[in-house]
Amino acid sequence: PKKELSRERDQNKKTKNTTYTTFKLETTSIM
User: What is the pLDDT of residues 1-31, one digit of tens each?
Assistant: First the structure.
């Protein structure tokens, strides 16, 4: 179960990163 938890957290981190990157890209293109 411990491995599952860490993998889930890793997935969350990836999702956050993707969202952040997309946000940055959109913000940059607006300027």
Answer: 788 888 888 888 888 889 888 888 888 876 6
Tokens of 27: 């913000």
Hey, what are 16's tokens? 């956050």
The residue assigned the tokens 């179960």 is 1
Structure tokens given for 18: 């993707």
Residue ranges making up the domain that contains 14 = 1-31
Number of domains in the chain: 1
pTM of the model: 0.47
How far is Cα 18 from Cα 5, in angstroms, rounded to an integer? 20
